[in-house]
Protein backbone atom coordinates (compact mmCIF):
# COMPACT_ATOMS: atom_id res chain seq x y z
CA UNK A 1 0.00 0.00 0.00
CA UNK A 2 1.04 3.53 -0.52
CA UNK A 3 1.43 6.24 2.06
CA UNK A 4 -1.48 8.65 1.99
CA UNK A 5 -0.94 12.23 3.16
CA UNK A 6 -3.49 14.98 3.14
CA UNK A 7 -4.07 18.28 4.83
CA UNK A 8 -7.09 19.05 6.99
CA UNK A 9 -7.00 22.62 8.06
CA UNK A 10 -3.91 23.35 10.12
CA UNK A 11 -3.27 19.71 11.08
CA UNK A 12 -1.14 17.46 8.95
CA UNK A 13 -2.53 13.88 9.02
CA UNK A 14 -0.46 11.01 7.66
CA UNK A 15 -1.61 7.42 7.33
CA UNK A 16 1.04 4.78 6.80
CA UNK A 17 0.47 1.09 6.29
CA UNK A 18 3.22 -1.46 6.34
CA UNK A 19 1.95 -4.51 4.48
CA UNK A 20 5.46 -5.88 4.00
CA UNK A 21 6.12 -6.02 7.74
CA UNK A 22 2.68 -7.55 8.36
CA UNK A 23 3.25 -10.11 5.62
CA UNK A 24 6.65 -10.97 7.12
CA UNK A 25 5.04 -11.40 10.53
CA UNK A 26 2.35 -13.74 9.20
CA UNK A 27 4.86 -15.65 7.07
CA UNK A 28 7.08 -16.15 10.13
CA UNK A 29 4.16 -17.38 12.24
CA UNK A 30 3.10 -19.75 9.46
CA UNK A 31 6.61 -21.12 8.88
CA UNK A 32 7.31 -21.61 12.58
CA UNK A 33 3.97 -23.32 13.20
CA UNK A 34 4.50 -25.67 10.27
CA UNK A 35 8.05 -26.38 11.49
CA UNK A 36 6.72 -27.38 14.93
CA UNK A 37 4.05 -29.65 13.42
CA UNK A 38 6.75 -31.12 11.18
CA UNK A 39 8.82 -32.08 14.21
CA UNK A 40 5.86 -33.93 15.70
CA UNK A 41 5.31 -35.60 12.33
CA UNK A 42 8.92 -36.82 12.13
CA UNK A 43 8.48 -38.84 15.32
CA UNK A 44 5.12 -40.34 14.32
CA UNK A 45 6.52 -43.39 12.45
CA UNK A 46 8.72 -44.22 15.46
CA UNK A 47 5.76 -43.91 17.83
CA UNK A 48 3.62 -46.07 15.59
CA UNK A 49 6.34 -48.74 15.32
CA UNK A 50 6.96 -48.67 19.08
CA UNK A 51 3.26 -49.11 19.85
CA UNK A 52 3.01 -51.90 17.28
CA UNK A 53 6.04 -53.67 18.78
CA UNK A 54 4.59 -53.28 22.27
CA UNK A 55 1.31 -54.85 21.12
CA UNK A 56 3.14 -57.76 19.50
CA UNK A 57 5.22 -58.29 22.66
CA UNK A 58 2.02 -58.21 24.76
CA UNK A 59 0.35 -60.80 22.51
CA UNK A 60 3.44 -63.05 22.62
CA UNK A 61 3.58 -62.76 26.42
CA UNK A 62 -0.15 -63.56 26.72
CA UNK A 63 0.18 -66.64 24.47
CA UNK A 64 3.29 -67.79 26.34
CA UNK A 65 1.53 -67.36 29.69
CA UNK A 66 -1.49 -69.35 28.52
CA UNK A 67 0.72 -72.15 27.12
CA UNK A 68 2.77 -72.36 30.33
CA UNK A 69 -0.24 -72.33 32.65
CA UNK A 70 -2.04 -75.03 30.65
CA UNK A 71 1.16 -77.09 30.39
CA UNK A 72 1.66 -76.89 34.17
CA UNK A 73 -1.96 -77.89 34.76
CA UNK A 74 -1.55 -80.88 32.44
CA UNK A 75 1.53 -82.04 34.33
CA UNK A 76 -0.25 -81.70 37.67
CA UNK A 77 -3.35 -83.50 36.38
CA UNK A 78 -1.34 -86.39 34.92
CA UNK A 79 0.40 -86.99 38.25
CA UNK A 80 -2.84 -87.29 40.24
CA UNK A 81 -4.26 -90.76 40.70
CA UNK A 82 -7.92 -89.69 40.74
CA UNK A 83 -9.84 -88.22 37.81
CA UNK A 84 -10.26 -84.44 37.87
CA UNK A 85 -13.36 -84.50 35.65
CA UNK A 86 -15.70 -87.13 34.30
CA UNK A 87 -15.80 -87.71 30.52
CA UNK A 88 -19.33 -86.29 30.22
CA UNK A 89 -18.25 -83.13 32.03
CA UNK A 90 -15.15 -82.88 29.86
CA UNK A 91 -17.15 -83.27 26.63
CA UNK A 92 -19.70 -80.65 27.73
CA UNK A 93 -16.92 -78.29 28.84
CA UNK A 94 -15.11 -78.61 25.47
CA UNK A 95 -18.38 -78.02 23.58
CA UNK A 96 -19.32 -74.91 25.62
CA UNK A 97 -15.77 -73.61 25.61
CA UNK A 98 -15.67 -73.83 21.81
CA UNK A 99 -19.03 -72.00 21.55
CA UNK A 100 -17.88 -69.25 23.89
CA UNK A 101 -14.60 -68.95 22.00
CA UNK A 102 -16.39 -68.60 18.66
CA UNK A 103 -18.70 -65.94 20.13
CA UNK A 104 -15.73 -64.01 21.52
CA UNK A 105 -13.83 -64.29 18.22
CA UNK A 106 -16.91 -63.03 16.37
CA UNK A 107 -17.31 -60.12 18.80
CA UNK A 108 -13.62 -59.23 18.44
CA UNK A 109 -13.91 -59.25 14.64
CA UNK A 110 -16.97 -57.00 14.77
CA UNK A 111 -15.27 -54.68 17.27
CA UNK A 112 -12.16 -54.50 15.09
CA UNK A 113 -14.24 -53.60 12.02
CA UNK A 114 -16.17 -50.96 13.98
CA UNK A 115 -12.89 -49.49 15.24
CA UNK A 116 -11.42 -49.37 11.73
CA UNK A 117 -14.63 -47.76 10.44
CA UNK A 118 -14.52 -45.17 13.24
CA UNK A 119 -10.87 -44.35 12.50
CA UNK A 120 -11.64 -44.03 8.78
CA UNK A 121 -14.63 -41.78 9.56
CA UNK A 122 -12.44 -39.59 11.78
CA UNK A 123 -9.87 -39.31 8.97
CA UNK A 124 -12.63 -38.30 6.53
CA UNK A 125 -13.85 -35.73 9.04
CA UNK A 126 -10.36 -34.21 9.15
CA UNK A 127 -10.28 -34.05 5.35
CA UNK A 128 -13.70 -32.36 5.41
CA UNK A 129 -12.47 -29.95 8.10
CA UNK A 130 -9.47 -29.05 5.94
CA UNK A 131 -11.71 -28.36 2.93
CA UNK A 132 -14.03 -26.27 5.12
CA UNK A 133 -11.12 -24.24 6.50
CA UNK A 134 -9.88 -23.62 2.96
CA UNK A 135 -13.34 -22.45 1.88
CA UNK A 136 -13.78 -20.18 4.89
CA UNK A 137 -10.30 -18.75 4.37
CA UNK A 138 -11.05 -18.10 0.70
CA UNK A 139 -14.32 -16.39 1.65
CA UNK A 140 -12.67 -14.28 4.36
CA UNK A 141 -9.85 -13.30 2.03
CA UNK A 142 -12.35 -12.20 -0.62
CA UNK A 143 -14.34 -10.28 1.97
CA UNK A 144 -11.20 -8.58 3.29
CA UNK A 145 -10.13 -7.62 -0.24
CA UNK A 146 -13.59 -6.22 -0.96
CA UNK A 147 -13.56 -4.27 2.30
CA UNK A 148 -10.08 -2.91 1.63
CA UNK A 149 -11.15 -1.87 -1.86
CA UNK A 150 -14.23 -0.13 -0.48
CA UNK A 151 -12.20 1.66 2.24
CA UNK A 152 -9.61 2.77 -0.31
CA UNK A 153 -12.30 4.21 -2.59
CA UNK A 154 -13.92 6.00 0.37
CA UNK A 155 -10.57 7.45 1.44
CA UNK A 156 -9.83 8.63 -2.07
CA UNK A 157 -13.26 10.24 -2.37
CA UNK A 158 -12.76 11.93 0.99
CA UNK A 159 -9.33 13.20 -0.03
CA UNK A 160 -10.62 14.57 -3.34
CA UNK A 161 -13.37 16.50 -1.57
CA UNK A 162 -10.80 18.28 0.56
Descriptive report:
This protein has 162 residues and is mainly alpha-helical. It contains two helices and two strands. The protein has helices spanning 19-79, 87-161; strands spanning 4-8, 11-15. The longest helix is centred in the last third of the chain and has 75 residues, at 87-161.
pLDDT averaged residue by residue:
87
Order of helices and strands: EEHH
The N- to C-terminal Cα distance equals 21 Å
For the biggest sheet, the summary is: 2 strands, antiparallel
Task: Summarize, please.
By secondary structure, the chain is mainly α.
Mind sketching the topology for me?
Elements lengths: L3 E5 L2 E5 L3 H61 L7 H75 L1
Antiparallel strand pairs: 1-2
Attribute tags:
mainly alpha; 162 residues; single chain
Amino acid sequence: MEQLSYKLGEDDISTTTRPTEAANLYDTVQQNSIKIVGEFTKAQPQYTQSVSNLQLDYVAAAKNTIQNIVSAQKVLASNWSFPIATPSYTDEFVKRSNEITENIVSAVRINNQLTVNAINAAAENFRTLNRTIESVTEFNTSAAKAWNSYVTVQQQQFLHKQ
